[in-house]
């Protein structure tokens, strides 16, 4: 799921949310910047290794680990397994959405399927933010409260990267969580267009991006609430492998 959806989930399973838990709830997606790999904070063994390192050497970041735990739980249900099938986002996409995403970003069907699931996540984020506008402030307040320099040093040392590279990458991720008006579908059009240019190295067709987003909303409108309620009700804490 996207940033504010992860925070929404975290708020509903933890009544004592702090800024590090909030940042932890979406920091695994730092992989989008290539500062870490997707497996680093989405696979059980790698997550456990990072947790052990923090607990032993940087216990002041323990709250961050709880947020990562929340991210893992929601991503498992989103990507891997939901209602004895594949994750919610993948089970909600259809061939029409995959085709639209493929055309919108000039990518092949396999890559479009991966990105199509993120369009479903965008729709869930859109619905949630229009129901819970305070989530925007929660994220921005958490970003202001954390010490990004210390957080960057933690990640740089564990993943053996330069501190400046990690600092810039974390700030880039945070900008994705804070700079767009995601209560407006056009904010998502801008986000996806910039994503396409930066990550896919292709100019997006904004009309098709908007059409794909509108279809994603249609596909998830009647099911996203049940999904979130089921996810929250699990109160799952076991770290699992996520796709």
Task: Give an overview in words.
The protein has 243 residues and is mainly alpha-helical. It has one domain. Helix content is 70%, strand content 0%. The protein is built from 13 helices and no strands.
Number of domains: 1
Count of individual beta strands: 0
What are the segments in which pLDDT stays under 50 over at least 5 consecutive residues? none
Structural class: mainly alpha
Major beta sheet summary: none
Whole-number average pLDDT? 97
String of helices and strands: HHHHHHHHHHHHH
- The helix content, as a percent range, equals over 70%
Shape: globular
Terminal Cα separation, in Å?
12 Å
The whole-angstrom Rg is 17 Å
Task: Tell me the fraction of residues in β-strands, as a range.
Answer: under 5%
Number of helices: 13
What's a quick, concise take on this entry?
The chain has helices at 3-13, 19-24, 44-57, 62-80, 88-92, 95-105, 109-131, 134-145, 148-159, 163-178, 185-200, 206-220, 224-234. By secondary structure, the chain is mostly helical. It has one domain.
Please describe the structure with a list of short key phrases separated by commas or semicolons.
70% helix, 13 helices, 243 residues, mainly alpha, 0% strand
């Amino acid at each position: 799921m996207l940033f504010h959806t992860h925070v929404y989930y975290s708020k509903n399973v933890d009544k004592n949310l702090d800024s590090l838990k909030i940042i932890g709830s979406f920091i695994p997606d730092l992989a989008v910047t290539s500062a870490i790999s997707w497996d680093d904070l989405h696979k059980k063994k790698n997550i456990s290794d990072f947790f052990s390192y923090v607990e032993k050497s940087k216990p002041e970041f323990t709250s961050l680990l709880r947020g990562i735990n929340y991210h893992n739980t929601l991503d498992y249900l989103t990507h891997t397994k939901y209602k004895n099938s594949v994750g919610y986002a993948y089970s909600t996409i259809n061939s029409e959405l995959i085709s639209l995403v493929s055309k919108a970003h000039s990518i092949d069907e396999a890559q479009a399927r991966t990105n199509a699931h993120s369009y479903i996540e965008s729709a869930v984020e859109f619905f949630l933010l229009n129901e819970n506008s305070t989530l925007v402030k929660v994220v921005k307040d958490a970003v202001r409260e954390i010490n990004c320099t210390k957080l960057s040093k933690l990640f740089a040392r564990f993943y053996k990267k330069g501190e400046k590279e990690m600092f810039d990458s974390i700030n880039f991720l945070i900008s994705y969580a804070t700079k767009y008006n995601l209560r407006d579908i056009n904010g998502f059009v801008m986000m996806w267009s910039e994503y396409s240019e930066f990550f896919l190295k292709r100019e997006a067709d904004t009309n098709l991006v908007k059409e794909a987003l509108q279809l994603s909303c249609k596909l998830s409108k009647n099911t996203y609430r049940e999904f979130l309620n089921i996810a929250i009700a699990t109160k799952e804490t076991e770290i699992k492998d996520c796709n």
